[in-house]
Amino acid sequence: MRTGMLAFALGLLSLRFLPALPPDGWLLALLLCGLACLRSRGWPLGCWVLGLCWACWSAQQALDDRLAPALEGRTLWLEGRVVGLPTRTEQGVRFELAQPLSRRAALPKRLQLSWFAGPELRAGERWRLAVNLRRPAGLLNPHGPDREALLLAQRIGATGTVKAGERLGAAPPGWRDALRQRLLAVDAQGREAALVALVLGDGGGLARQDWQVLQATGTVHLLVISGQHIGLLAGLMYGLVAGLARLGAWPSRLPWLPWACALAMAAALGYGWLAGFGVPVQRACLMLAVVLLWRLRFRHLGAGLALLLALLGVLLIEPLASLLPGFWLSFAAVAVLVLCFSARLGGWRPWQAWTRAQWVIAVGLLPLLLALGLPISLTAPLANLLAVPWISLAVLPLALLGTAMLAVPWLGEGMLWLAGLALDGLFQCLAWGARRLPAWVPEPLPLWAWLLVALGALLVLLPRGVPLRMPGAVLLLALWAPREQVPHGQVQVWLLDVGQGLAVLLRTRRHALLYDAGPALGASDLGDSVVLPTLRRLGVKQLDLMLISHGHADHAGGAGALRRGLPVKRVMAGEVAGLAPAQRCASGERWQWDGVDFELWQWAQGASSNDRSCVLRVVANGERLLLAGDMEAGAERAWLAASEDLRIDWLQAPHHGSRTSSTEPFIKALVPRGVMISRGRHNGFGHPHAQVIERYRRHGVVVHDTAVEGALRLVLGNHGEVEGVRGQRRFWRSIED
Fold this sequence. Notes:
CATH architecture of the largest domain: 4-Layer Sandwich
Strand order of the largest sheet: 13-12-11-8-7-6-21-22
Structural class: alpha/beta
Number of strands: 22
Helix content: 40-55%
CATH class of the largest domain: Alpha Beta
Number of helices: 26
CATH superfamily of the largest domain: Ribonuclease Z/Hydroxyacylglutathione hydrolase-like
């Protein structure tokens, strides 16, 4: 039985690694083969095939429910009902709309919408909205998050921006939304949003700084309702009934064990309902249900079987859950604890078990964090030693009791005030630890090194006395395995996907240069949220030069965040205003790094900021790249007149491919092999212009576009081709524009 369950679960998990879904005909053939295998000795293979078929069918339904390509970028009037808890941001409100209807087209069942400066929304309200719709997509950079996978796992068929709207019907009484508003209105020492996250599982109101502190200290699971919270509440309810029965205070006509199990399960389900039943909550409730059922029959249940049943339950309900990093972390953490605390000879004192649990999880999740490209918190074991009991024994009981007693004047609000005070103190301690020892973002390991780390972690977690534990600790040194180095005379170029902006990383063997820093507008700073994390994932420890082409926010906006987050030896800019201390671009300056030549140029007489862009030419082994910033027609003519050798192999499209740049004489003189365009999907400027694209193609220039291909990679000097991150095939990625 367990073998079949495990094979079925592996089939469901296999969906995560498919480059493409099988066509319907092949899926039917696989299903028939799986059913045939069930009647033979190959029945485990049949279980695996059936799991895969179910997962593929479910994923195909989600893909078929995406917005039709013909509707992308169009504005439609539609009607629908607000679902979930709308999130208020600095720019407006973000919410989901279910079962939208339009007279002009069939729409996906679920939309994720943003309404800039929008009104207050309530769950259950019906609205008529004018929405500019887009297919699910997001920025895609090396080793970074994949928003397209996240949206598919949530079965979001389209995203969009609301242009106008009118409320058609008020919301029916919605206790969850009303409770959130009540919690946000209480005085909780400025930690009202954290209380909402803890009680309702809605972390949308938490500040970005708070998320960064939680991530840096490995304590995110404490503010996102997890199995720990569910188990604690169920255990308290079970213990309360058992304690009353032992003291003789429980009614004798009611058998205490069934009531204890039922009330524990009811408490878990009630809290899960309150929290919206995320994957960790589903896993915890399913495991708890299995354990309580076995407890009623007085049978011993291995924790491994309960975990396997929970895994099957979650994946049967939603096979796409395997696309979520939280799914893997949630189940892996429990699996590590089961491995290390089950079938041990002798016992551990409570304090020993508690302290060992922290380092066990830290070591056990290490390979998974590396595989997912997530930061590794060096303070997590110590931070959790303090934070877990503090949240479990102080904050959570106060928060839940205070919420339940809000109807009692002063009492509920007083408890929530104490809970907020306790939360604030905890956040201050965690922030201190995060400043002292920030999270580590390692470079991706080669496969052989990752396998050694995974094996080493497994051996270290074996019981004491096993002779292979020490060699396992040695294998963990593969974390510092040498990474692939850029060869002398070559330069690795990454044109990052930063939407409507520009950020280009150039790395020689021992140096790193960043050309432009990505856009920033208001609270949205892609230098901080995209460029800086990507540089860290690529192993950039410092920048030898940050070169800002000109002062526009889509090129210079992220410079401040990068200077705060990384050591920068030197800053140069076409316009130094707002970037001090910085040197002005010195036209004609040349230097060489590791056999690669660099040269700057600027048209100082340019009438506009765009035309005064600082231009960088890079030559590696005879192969040439021109980073042109936002220069337009006038600067292009000046560059042609000033340059002796006009040959260019690769070109960063001037001004994102606008109609005022990439002129016919410029392209004809350069005739590059390829052009790389950095721009946002469906941007309001119409970049790149259709005439510019046609002009490039007429001259045989291959066009690469970050909005279509994600971040672009080029190794200048080996005379290869440009590769887009989206070219790494995944079944959920759409390559159409």
